[in-house]
Design goal:
The complex is a heterodimer of chains A (about 375) and B (about 350). By secondary structure, chain A is an alpha/beta fold. Helices cover about 45% and strands about 20% of the residues of chain A. Chain B contains 15 helices and two strands. With about 350 residues, chain B is an all-alpha fold. The chains are: A alpha/beta (about 375), B mainly alpha (about 350).
């Protein structure tokens, strides 16, 4: 009798544990989010994250759970968070990280664990990892092409570049090199700096010595103001262009008067009211603002738009995926990936997304407008 | 690279170098007196800069609450120690230092901040708010293990760095801040225009260094600090309270750190985690001074500033690499050139 009791006391918990770990099939869709809410990327990460904290916990009519982790703008922490989400929380899809080096790092984990990730920063991955990596923000060449068009329209012939000394700066420089040459614009200076740097005077001096007609700053968030302010302090009067990574209120707050007249590309949501009525993006963007501004008044920024678009894409994919598998299983992760890749004409706040096996960003020229800082606000550049 | 650019780079390098020199001196001072390699010096810089930025926005800075909170914790630790040692003397001074002064400062900050006082008052209030963190850190983290080896003290210093950085994030937020320049005048010095702000930084650093030199040479407490630095047991034997020396060293370090923070805030956007890199560069200056010589440490820090400016110009991607690689030849030179002395195990 005692022997049987002891046997049961050991085997029943073991079986229970085994059952629990074996197949967590559930009705709830778990969405893992990695955002840089601290560190130099915080001025982007916080708006990215605030969308998910204010969305109702459901997706395509199914109950959903958003699990949000902070990676402190550090790629190794992004990887740790990704592993935690995949192995402990068993999420069905990962949204994030919110900065390019983090996306590059997590893409390895996603490909290995066979889970789709919708990166919230532009990223370019080698073809072997491409099946599992999607990215929402407009690809850098599309946006920089807009900048070059504007420059050409203003008869600029030479451009200088200063960007982050990491994956993002690389991406922007490559895009610049690819688009400037065909347009007849010469890159006369190319400098780099680190996100937490306190002084870029030397790089600014070198740029000014090359006398470019315009300068492109390959940064994002508030650290992008550092070379901008340094250039203006040293008396540079040409136009300074930025990437779509600076479109937010913090950039203007830290830059102050120096950033007046900055031109940058962004998605249509920033100037949604000024869009023509037949543009499908206008309705989605205005809906988005109306839905979230009671809880999150500063919802009107580019990064929150990207977060919402990632959610919309995932939402469009959940329907087809539920037909094939149940949430929480590896088959569901595969089904989500397949459904994402097959998305066509999903209207978001930044663009109309049509993905394919070779294009995991899916945006076209409709995704880009040029804006300028006027009187401390971002205004549409006509 | 022509003469104008070289002059501008020299000016930029000297300005940064002056700030690194203040930090190098503070780190060296703390190391000499307490043998703690004070990595969190950068956090004092950050707190100083961010407190000033918050005061400029007419808001009560988080530092006031931080100081009051840590003051209460330190007082509790003091009471616990007093109970264990069954003594009552010293509790009065502790209550004054750790409870009364922080509360007064908190009240002062809450009253002054919304009134947008003139810049000088704001700077003084910033210094007053950040400096108490020094002795409190000493009392909480270092005094109980004051006799441990240098390595253990270094681990504790790194731990303090993470704690202070986390507290900085809680009290100041993840966003960066910049303060407006103290002065926007530009001065013609021969062939180049120097900004008034840079001259102010250089002058302030030079004056601080001279004041520190006089403090060590002529005041009783300065000599007491030097004695503790030379030999702790000997200092105790002649009646110098080593805990008080340690507290004073940390107070001076906090003062220098906060002052550097106030000086650097108009130049650049400071985040809650910017301090670490700045203090590391000050530390390189200290290493160049061999961890013993104050003038060499200041000079080394200025060299680091100049090297950083010129390296950013010629090879901006490799700037950090070049600056920190300076450590290698310096350490090689120092270890080959100095005579090997058996370390005295005196505690």
């Amino acid at each position: 009798m005692k022997y049987i009791a002891r046997l049961l006391a050991v085997t029943v918990p073991a079986m229970a544990l085994g059952l629990a770990a074996w197949s967590p099939v559930r009705a709830e869709v778990k969405i893992g989010i990695i955002a840089s809410t601290t560190g130099p990327g915080a001025s982007l990460g916080i708006p990215y994250r605030n969308v998910y904290t204010n969305l109702p916990p459901q997706i395509a009519g199914q109950p959903a759970k958003f699990i949000i982790l902070d990676d402190g703008s550090d790629p190794s922490t992004s990887v740790k968070n990704a592993r935690k989400l995949i192995e402990e929380e068993k999420v069905d899809i990962i949204l994030g990280p919110t900065f390019t080096p983090g996306c590059l790092a997590v893409s390895d984990v996603a490909a290995e664990a066979k889970i789709a990730m919708i990166c919230l920063a532009p990223v370019v991955v080698p073809p072997a990892k491409l099946p599992w990596v999607f990215s929402i923000p407009q690809s850098v060449p599309v946006m920089i092409a807009g900048v070059i068009e504007h420059m050409k329209a203003n008869n600029g012939k030479t451009i200088g570049y200063i960007g982050f000394a990491d994956g993002w700066g690389d991406l922007v420089l490559k895009a610049l090199e690819a688009t400037a040459g065909p347009a007849g614009i010469k890159i006369v200076a190319s400098e780099r700096y680190n996100r937490p740097d306190t002084s870029v005077t030397a790089q600014a001096l070198k740029l000014i010595a090359a006398k470019p007609d315009a300068v492109l700053v390959g940064g994002s968030g508030t650290p992008a103001t550092t070379p901008h302010i340094a250039l203006r302090e040293r008396g540079y009067t040409g136009t300074i262009y930025h990437t779509h990574g600076v479109i937010g209120a913090d950039f203007i707050r830290v830059g102050g008067k120096s950033v007046e007249g900055t031109v940058a590309p962004t998605g249509p949501l920033m100037v949604a009211e000024q869009l023509p009525d037949d543009n499908p993006i206008k309705k989605v963007a205005l809906d988005f603002f109306a839905k979230l501004s009671p809880a999150y008044p500063q919802v009107r920024n580019a990064f929150s738009g990207y977060s919402y678009d990632a959610f919309l894409l995932a939402q469009a994919a959940v329907g087809p995926a539920m037909a094939k598998a149940k949430p929480g299983s590896p088959q569901f992760r595969q089904a989500m990936r397949d459904a994402l890749e097959a998305s066509k004409e999903v209207v978001g706040t930044h663009a109309v997304y049509s993905l394919s096996a070779t294009d995991h960003n899916g945006v076209d020229k409709r995704a880009r407008v040029l804006v300028r800082v006027e009187g401390g606000q971002w205004k549409l550049l006509k | 690279m022509n003469f104008d650019i070289a002059l501008l780079l020299v000016q930029d390098g000297l300005t940064n170098g002056a700030i690194y020199a203040l930090l190098a001196l503070a780190i060296l001072l703390v190391f000499a007196v307490t043998r703690v390699l004070y990595v969190p010096q950068g956090e004092f810089v950050t707190f100083g800069a961010l407190t000033l930025a918050t005061l400029q926005q007419a808001k009560v800075p988080g530092t006031a609450y931080l100081v009051a909170g840590i003051g209460v914790v330190t007082m509790l630790v003091e009471i616990a120690t007093a109970l264990r040692e069954r003594r009552r003397q010293g509790l009065g001074t502790s209550a004054l230092l750790y409870l009364v002064i922080p509360t007064v400062l908190l009240g002062l900050a809450a009253w002054l901040a919304p009134r947008q006082p003139p810049l000088l008052v704001q700077v003084l209030l910033t210094l007053a708010l950040v400096v108490p963190l020094g002795p409190m850190t000493y009392r909480l983290a270092v005094q109980p293990i004051a006799n441990a080896s240098v390595l253990v003290l270094l681990f504790v210093a790194v731990a303090i760095h993470y704690v202070l950085m986390g507290l900085g994030l809680v009290f100041f937020g993840a966003e960066g801040w910049r303060t407006p320049s103290f002065t926007s005048l530009r001065v013609e010095l021969g062939p180049m225009t120097a900004s008034g702000q840079s001259i102010l930084v250089l002058a302030a650093s030079a004056i601080s260094i001279v004041l520190l030199w006089q403090f060590f040479g002529r005041t009783l407490w300065g000599k007491a600090l030097r004695a503790t630095a030379m030999n702790r047991t000997g200092a105790r034997l002649v009646g110098i309270p080593t805990e008080a020396s340690g507290r004073l060293a940390f107070t001076l370090a906090a003062l220098f750190g906060a002052f550097s923070g106030v000086l650097i805030a108009p130049f650049t956007t400071i985040y809650y985690d910017s301090g670490f890199l700045i203090s590391l560069k000050g530390f390189v200056g200290t290493v160049i001074g061999g961890m013993v010589s104050y003038p060499l440490a200041a000079l080394g820090a200025v060299i680091v500033g100049l090297l950083e400016a010129f390296a950013s110009f010629y090879a901006s991607e490799l700037k950090e690499v070049i600056v920190f690689s300076l450590l290698i030849p310096v350490l090689l030179w120092r270890s080959l050139a100095s005579r090997h002395v058996e370390e005295e195990h005196d505690e």
